[in-house]
Specification:
alpha/beta, 10 strands, 46% helix
Length: 301
């Protein structure tokens, strides 16, 4: 259970949409909340560089003080604040390490033509490189959110593929949902074969059907074992198996149909397969889902 939660802010109402979720978790976990903003380096211009840098630092400090005051007045929570300068994602990661934070909660775009713009600059880098879990929240308006809003994560979707990498998200996902007595849906998607396995069409159809049947049976057996383990620990869990052409689209579609509050995913961290795994599934879900998404970097090895 996280004890220190960091919320990166950039001065926008958009970024502040992460705060109600972070505050709800901090209250339920008795965790410390820390607000961070990062000043990007100012281009050095004679006679004005110092003044601009000082003004930016003053603005950032005043901004976080204001957010902290609003949080305190609305919820009674005392939030710590940190202002730094440097490359944004790397600086946030440094603060995470210094404070030994357990979770980063931040806003990010959902669906739409601008979905990659902000995500690509900050959130995507943190998802790929941060050593702590990232909880990505979708804003649902343009005005600053009500900081007293209680956010509930009552239905959690956990896609699994039978690997220990995917299962590494379970502990935190269960901890998040447990705060609201959530129910959980374990999802296993079977990819539909897209390549012909025989030059003879009837054989291809028959072989594809056999592959799908075997894959579905294996998926159902795996999820049944996983659900039994969780049920024995008192967790309300359901299972879903489906055949899809795209795993990422399948996850997003099921999240919409089941009206879940949270999608919990694991991804690889550093290593040769980092981008391959993140780019093929987790990255697409992060960019395409409208629900809050938890991404946990799987352990090395």
């Amino acid at each position: 259970m996280p004890k220190t939660i960091i919320v990166p802010l950039d001065g926008s109402a958009f970024a502040e949409y992460a705060l109600p979720t972070a505050l709800s978790l901090a209250n339920r976990w008795a965790a410390e909340l820390h607000l961070v903003t990062v000043e990007e380096p100012v281009v050095a211009i004679p006679d004005v560089h110092f003044e601009v840098g000082t003004a930016v630092r003053r603005w950032a400090t005043d901004y976080l003080d204001d957010v902290g005051s609003r949080i305190r007045e609305r919820t009674g929570v005392e939030a710590g604040t940190t202002v730094r300068d440097g490359p944004v994602s790397l600086t946030i990661q440094a603060v995470v390490q210094e404070l030994r934070a357990d979770l980063v909660v931040m806003s990010t775009h959902g669906r739409g033509p601008m979905s990659r713009a902000w995500l690509g600059s900050i959130a995507d880098a943190l998802v790929r490189d941060s050593g702590v879990p990232i909880l990505l929240v979708r804003p649902d308006g343009e005005e600053a959110p009500d900081l007293g809003t209680e956010v509930a994560l009552r239905h959690v979707l956990i896609p699994l593929d039978g690997s220990t990498v995917a299962e590494s998200v379970l502990e935190l996902a269960l901890s998040l949902g447990r705060s609201w007595d959530a129910r959980y849906t374990l999802l296993r998607l079977v990819r539909y074969p897209t390549q012909a396995v025989s030059a003879y069409l009837p054989d291809t159809v028959q072989m594809v059907e056999q592959i799908v049947r075997e894959g579905t049976a294996t998926a159902e057996e795996y999820l049944s074992r996983a659900a039994t383990r969780l049920s024995e620990s008192g967790v309300a869990v359901e299972t879903e198996v489906a055949v899809v052409n795209s795993v990422a689209r399948g996850i997003i579609q099921h999240a919409d149909e089941l009206r879940v509050d949270l999608i919990a995913l694991a991804s690889h961290g550093h290593g040769g397969f980092r981008r391959a795994v993140l780019g093929s599934v987790a990255d697409k879900v992060v960019r395409g889902a409208v629900q809050t998404v938890l991404v946990v970097r799987a352990p090395e090895g």
